[in-house]
Amino acid sequence: MNYIVNKRSFTDGSKNIILFILLFFALLLLFIFNVAFGSVNIALTDLFSILLGSGSEDGPAYYIIHRSRLPQAVTATLAGAALAVGGLQMQALFRNPLADPSILGVSSGAGLGVAVVLMMGGISGFVLSKMGWVGHLTITTAAFAGALLVLFFILMLANKLRDNAMLLIAGIMVGYGASALVGILKFYSMQEDVHAFVIWGLGSFASVSWSRMEVFFPVLMVALAGSLLLIKPLNLMMLGDNYASNLGVNIRLFRFLILGCTGLLTATVTAFCGPIAFLGLAVPHLTRGVFKTSNQQILVPAVMLSGAIVALFSNLIARMPGFDGALPINAVTSMIGAPVVIWVILRNRKVLQ
Amino acid sequence: MDKLIYTDNLAIGYGNGGKNSSVLHRDINVRLMAGEFACLLGPNGSGKSTLIKTFAGFLSRISGSLFIDGKSVDKLSGKEISKLLSVVLTERVMVPNMTVYDLVSLGRSPFTGFFGRLSLTDKDIIATSLESVKLNGFEKRNVFELSDGERQKAFIAKALVQETPLIVLDEPTAFLDLPSRVEIMHLLKDLAHKYNKGVLLSTHDLDLALQTADKIWLLAAGLPVETGVPEDLVLTNEFRKFFEREGVLFDTESGQFTKADNHVKSIRLVGKGVEYKWVSRALARNGFSTSDDPFSRLQVEISSDNKREYILSGADGKPVKLRTIEDLLERLKYADI
């Protein structure tokens, strides 16, 4: 008996190791593709000499790779991993297959922040959308502030509300409230500012320069590491609050930490890249389909890898020859995400009925 | 013996004793010993679930005191309770891809480390528990694919690997078919006796509770809680007090509920053994009360020597031999009474 169980877990374990290795190579390959391909053709030999630091440090190829493609690939990798983990955490915490990181209203909060600086600026006389990098920095800061404000509010509510379903509804309502305010602001704004807001809303991995990476990278790394530390309570909270607390989980504390972790991940990504749709919802389902497990010890790292892969893949498609970087990232992620969600519903129809 | 549950004038309900709290039941004085299998019975809405949830620490009590394994619940942390008491609840758990092994292994969480990795000892305990509930071979099965009875056994295995002296279950036999009910009740009784655990469950299965329970707890609104050995509670008419209502009677002899005003016609039944029992049941269902009165107008004699026969001698005096109970009932329907 014992022998059989151990053998079983051994074969399962080796299957997972192979899958992890495959995912890792897919990630590496896509990362290189992201750096190698774009609207300007750069020879592969030049690419490697630039990446390895042996080539000349000036010239257009060096500039394009260092200033544009490399940061963009790093941004996509981190943002994809962050949103996917956020989605996984929300689906487990709320025990709802359709939960995603924006369900807390955090991305709507970011949107409100951006709308306030873009459009209030327009009303008071200076047009941020014409101010270049200063404007960019202000937009990021405003998005971050708006997202954190909503997150703070949600965490306060989480302290008051015992019931997760109530918290979920409260989060959605906060999102609606923020969107309504954005709508009002839009109504009174100038056309350029509304246009700038729409552009921000389409999402992009291209707006994180190296100097901004100094914030983007460490914050996401800390939150991603935090999500690894929350694996055990996340596993138990899938059973529901009562079973989890009977198994020794401090529900209030860990709900607070899980919400905080997802909130920080989402706030950071949304502030720097705009609201990226569907990644957080679809990637956990994709990963569950591949790994066929409910164990978060496997799912959390697997979802990080898959999220990064899907983001890099989407970014690659968005920059395919012909689109010329014009295809918004959200159009691509939604095109991948929507069929996945439909597939999940079809596959789960027995369960949901 | 250890008192695993002990209460002193416990009051249960919702709220925390303030103005808005609603008290469902007060002055509860009960105790559960190690190795004891107790069934909590009571009509709907009497507070069975509330009592179970209060024991498990999901609801705080309104007043009085509650001791788990001799310690006041006020002094127990969530971690400590997780090693004293395990639960099986009515709420449905819907986790995509979760296997029986995954579910049961989560029961080891109070003992595993920071990431919840299973040690070899943990794996041994999980295998033994799956064997005790006869789910060996089910490890890889998805929890969704299980029958209701198998799923309940998986949750019982989860409670077993938690290695607590006390297991509390909220209506574990609800929604199960009859064979599964019997299996679950006997399984729980055996676990209590074999591992010297205290097992408390709430149920509506009076029949099964009477057959299997070491102790029965009766809970109903407006009545003090009664506990005792099932037979004592039957003989002291406690069951009548708790469950009888207009039109429904508790038959102390058979331990079953019957409809009132059923027995109007009297019949003499002669016979013995298992045939006697089932014929009297069939007669009772059709409105006859059986007696041994030799002056009864109707008489049924069961001969079970070589060939099973039912001999009906009626008002006209001529005995009729019948092969089945069905024929007998048919005959009685048209007999001139």
Structural description of this entry:
The complex is a heterodimer of chains A (353) and B (337). Chain A has 353 residues and is an all-alpha fold. Chain A has one domain (2-352): ABC transporter involved in vitamin B12 uptake, BtuC. In chain A, 78% of the residues lie in helices and 0% in strands. Chain A has 15 helices and no strands. Chain A has helices at residues 2-36, 44-51, 60-93, 106-124, 132-160, 164-187, 191-202, 210-229, 231-237, 241-246, 251-273, 279-291, 296-318, 329-347, 349-352. In chain A, helix 3 runs antiparallel to helix 11 (251-273). The longest helix of chain A is centred in the first third of the chain and has 35 residues, at 2-36. Chain A is globular. Chain B has 337 residues and is an alpha/beta fold. Chain B has two domains: 3-245, Rossmann fold; 265-334, Rossmann fold, CATH 3.40.50. Helix content of chain B is 32%, strand content 26%. Chain B has helices spanning 48-56, 78-82, 100-106, 120-132, 148-161, 178-194, 206-212, 230-235, 238-243, 273-285, 325-334; strands at residues 3-14, 22-28, 31-33, 37-41, 63-68, 71-72, 85-88, 166-170, 198-202, 215-218, 226-228, 248-251, 256-259, 265-270, 288-291, 299-303, 309-313, 319-322. In chain B, the strands form four sheets. Chain B has a six-stranded mixed sheet, sandwiched between helices. In chain B, strand 17 (309-313) and strand 18 form a beta hairpin. Chain B is elongated, with a radius of gyration of 25 Å. The model of chain B has no long low-confidence stretch (mean pLDDT 87). Chain A binds chain B through residues 1-2, 5-6, 8-9, 95, 97, 229, 231-232, 235-236, 238-240, 242-243, 245-250, 288, 292-295, 297, 348, 350-351, and chain B through 53, 56-58, 78-79, 81-83, 85-87, 89, 91, 93-99, 101-102, 106-107, 109-110, 112, 114-117, 123-124, 126-127, 131, 136, 139-140, 144, 162.
Quickly give the structural class of chain A: mainly alpha
CATH architecture designation of chain A: Orthogonal Bundle
**What is the number of helices of chain A?**
15
- Seen as an oligomer or otherwise, the chain set is heterodimer
CATH architecture of the largest domain in chain B: 3-Layer(aba) Sandwich
The first-level CATH class of chain A is given as Mainly Alpha
Number of strands of chain A: 0
Biggest sheet overview of chain A: none
For the termini of chain A, the CA-CA separation is: 36 Å
CATH superfamily of the largest domain in chain B: P-loop containing nucleotide triphosphate hydrolases
Largest sheet of chain B, if any? 6 strands, mixed
